[in-house]
Amino acid sequence: MTPRSTRRTGAAKSRLVAIGALAAAGALVLSSCGDQTDDGGDGGDGGETKDAASTAPGALPKAIEDAGVIKVGSDIAYAPMEFDQGGKPAGVDIDIANALGEELGVEFQFQNNVFDNLIPSLDSGRFDIIMSSMTDNKERQAEVDFVDYFSAGVSILVQKGNPEGITSLDDLCGETVAFQRGTVSADIAKAQNEKCDKPIETLPFTKDTEALLQVKQGRAVADLNDFPVAAYNARESGGGEDFEVVGEQIDAAPYGIAVSKDNPELRDALAEALDAIIENGEYQKVLEKWNVENGGVDKATINGGNE
């Protein structure tokens, strides 16, 4: 059953998913980005959709076709979406990228980077695309184009047993809250702080794993991160004894593959390839593998983030 999504007033940007039992190694699980608008499955209205026609994906830019490689920027610390597994990137995004690569006849090579450096690195030409659970929103659309491929919302993660009785964003007023810098979680904390009589003490970190540690050690009452990641950590960290997710998801929004606005040919080829793997069933196989089916989309959408 898909969890309900709570609408937050103010600058909304996030991600939504129902996640099932994830079989993976225990221990403190990694988290990242997040960041993030307001619709679930297909990423909302207002975006340009690509028909899932039974045709081969469009042509790639010649330089990429000749190289046989698409360079992907990602903050690989966000299980189950993207994380390090035995020294190699793994997760939902990696498997979707591999399926896209099969359609396009190229290899997707992931390069690890800090989340809030990803768009500047794309602009500088270090990557061809970003695939890092990045929320498609209007602010980011000013810098890049998105091919939306997934959907998720932000959740509140607390210590197991919820010792402070946190159930909503309002309960965070006057408390200490940790999150990853440069994400929509940071935006949510900032917007909530403006509503509080007693301000939230915010602890931003480069990696969400650092924010999780603050909660585990009692230095913060909550960590804000994307629901699939929050649920994964609640299930896996400490054998399920470290954390729990409380309250409802906040601001469902699409994740998008970010592409330079100067490269519409690559953007459109990715959108057509996404439609192809949705149609042939490979996309669904990835979602089922990671138990994130309810975050799936029905078709590729370009710039579908509404906020």
UniProtKB/TrEMBL annotation:
What residue stretches are annotated with the Solute-binding protein family 3/N-terminal domain? 69-294
Record-linked Pfam families? SBP_bac_3
Residues spanning the signal sequence? 1-23
Record's keyword terms, sorted: Signal
Ionotropic glutamate receptor C-terminal domain span = 69-294
Stretches for region Disordered: 34-58
Q: What is this protein called?
A: ABC transporter substrate-binding protein
